Amino acid sequence: VLRRRRRRQLSPRFLVCVDGGGCLPALTDGHAPQATEGPLAHEIVALLAQQPALAEFKPEIRFCQLSYSPRPGDNLEVLWHEVATALERVKATGWRAFRSDHSVDVVAAGVSKTEVLRRLRVDFDLPFGASILCIGDQAREPGNDAELLAEPFSLSVGSSSARSNAGWHLAPPGLRCGGAGLA
Fold it and tell me: Which of 27, 44, 56, 152 lies at a CB distance of 3.0 to 4.6 Å from 11, suitable for a disulfide?
């Protein structure tokens, strides 16, 4: 939709982030962001599947991210702990596990949502440390937005950050995401 509307005016002003910051194609390049599977992701999945606690899980595999969805009755916190522990056991150097509201995301080494901020600062010639409004839903570790929402003045529509200057909860008390009209 963004490409069709005022392509020449708007496209250069948008930066699209997929897979936790690992793939950042510009809208002007004529291609939609693709979530393609990478060979290293398959290797990590095979190693994790050898761990008894994860043997029955079939994660969604993308270019630089895996997503484990809990089965009915599973506790998301326990699943995150099992995945994080399994990553340590198989020595998946640099791969990290994060929690979202609905899954456990495992991102490849070197991948971070903060890459979006770096790209914005470079692409728009912003000074290092320039404030950029960041909005997410999981500001508290091990949330999938915790690194991004560590930026000063960032906002969360879910869990708030433990920091006093970042990851502030945006919704009214007791409301989150869609219930606050923010999704």
Answer: 27
